Amino acid sequence: MAKASLKPKKAPKPKASKVPKAKVPKAEEVTSRLRIRVRAYESKILDLSVKQIIDTALRYDAKVQGPIPLPTEIKKYTVNRAAFIYKNAREQFEMRIHKRLIDILNPTPKIIESLTNLSLPSGVNIDVKLI
């Protein structure tokens, strides 16, 4: 008498189908990039000025990346409430600096000129770099 095998039979593995990889069209080469960092104490004023910058860039058919919100910088100050005897009574104040980043790809001289002539509200600080 022969003993029957109790092991279950394994199903054959499906063959991996070879799917051709889709060719990704090459994006336009970025030769230069205008990086604009905008900072302000109030976020509403900051967003309005960023919108104004982007609208100006898009008017001249520029490719814009952003606005990218950067981390808010918080400066905290602790001050004594009283001058002499109440040493443990203190107040804390903070200043928040909101930041945004905008990249303009392949800027033309017209775009740069229009951005320099742009009038933005007071309290908005702008750093421009050509990378």
Number of helices: 2
| Counted beta strands | 4
Kindly report the CATH topology: Alpha-Beta Plaits
Measured on Cα atoms, how large is the radius of gyration? 30 Å
Structural domain tally: 1
Question: What is the H/E order?
Answer: EHEEHE
Describe this structure in words.
The protein has 2 helices and 4 strands; from the N terminus they run βαββαβ. 10% of the residues are buried. With 131 residues, it is α+β, with helices and mostly antiparallel strands. Strands 2-3-1-4 form a 4-stranded antiparallel sheet.
Summarize the structure.
It contains two helices and four strands. With 131 residues, the chain is α+β, with helices and mostly antiparallel strands.
Tell me the layout of helices and strands:
Elements: E1 33-40, H1 43-59, E2 63-80, E3 90-105, H2 109-116, E4 124-130
Features:
4-stranded antiparallel β-sheet, 131 residues, alpha+beta, Alpha-Beta Plaits
